[in-house]
Amino acid sequence: MLKLRRAKVLEAPPPDGLEQRLLVSLVSAAAFESPHAQGRALDAGAAGEQRPAVADVGLVGTVAVGDEVIVNVEALDLGLGSGGFDVVHVNLTRGLAAEGLAGANVMKLNYTSLQHAVQPVEDEKLELPLTDPVGVLALHGQLAAVAWAFAQTAPGRRLGYVQTGGGALPGGHSRVVGALRERSLLAGHLTAGAAFGGGEGEAVSTAGAVHYGLRTLGWDAVLCGPGPGIVGSRSPLGHGGMAALDSAHAALALGAPTLLVARMSSGDPRVRHRGISHHTLTVLDLLLEPVTVALPAGMRSPVGNDLRAGLGAVFGVSATSRPQLELEEVDRPARIARHDWRRATVDLPAYAASALPAQTMGRGLVEDPLFFGAALAGGAALADMLAQDEQRQSRADEAA
User: Fold this and answer.
1) pLDDT, tens digit, for every residue of 348-363?
2) Which residues, in sequence order, are CB contacts of 190 under 8 Å at separation 6+?
3) In terms of residue numbers, what domain contains 16?
């Protein structure tokens, strides 16, 4: 069941894009036992428990101070780090006056109380194969570093972002996307599948979004990945990072050169994520075709033993002790070794000076340099793949 509570809005600054950040006061459920007590309860709402909340104005409209709203309190009650706020479900004071999108006939959030019609962006004509590269993210926290490194290596090229499932669904929840667009590091933002609210439109599928971005919007390369706050568990398959498997397969099926941005860490307290995360290792093992994977050149892992232990836990290989193991020297099972492993030069100080977002699970560049080094390597390798594609096309044009 949904965990919903009534609340009174105490603070309601103007929306930032599609997201409005609020302060609300929960009204005690016991106050509504008697119809005569409801008015008094709402008037006294300011004295209740005060909590942060978010309204997606694309779904529930703009909220004002004094409004009575229904909020979903589940994530904040559970103490989820990425869901540290209540979410407005409906505004009881203003209602929902939207008339829907004329001509739209595709639903998102199907068969929920928040289902709404959208006009999908998918192209009517399928033009294959795609030759421009697609980078696949494991975490939203990689997006800024990958986009920055791509721009340093391929200045002037248009990089687009396709937001998939696996994390937050509303496109307006990503302040990273806003920051990257302000600095022209992202050329556009599409939302695919259950995700919604992309600046350039909605796609029914990840494959459709990639095709539309490259063929119609004129992007030179695409990044696919979940919004902030992926779900996770200790199981090999029960986590939002598995969205990378679907995105990589979609890109490969379209004929696009495909790069998987490795999730790596030198600071995560969980052994399964240190070195190369078990999320990345599992996706690399399950992929039906090889992809490109970049490692940060010159970065030695202080957790090489953990990396071997992680491989052993996932794939049953030996985990012999070896201090200061170089990442490039890790013995990988055959299904891991089949991929195109590349080294890319990274510049962590320069990225730190860029003032772009640099946080993962509360850790910054100093606490987890390997996480950001791997993301920077992914961006540089994606730009190199674009340059290789352009060289092939140039040679083909000359031969013709």
Assistant:
1) 999 999 999 888 777 8
2) 121, 160, 161, 162, 163, 198, 200, 201, 202, 203, 209, 212, 213
3) 4-91
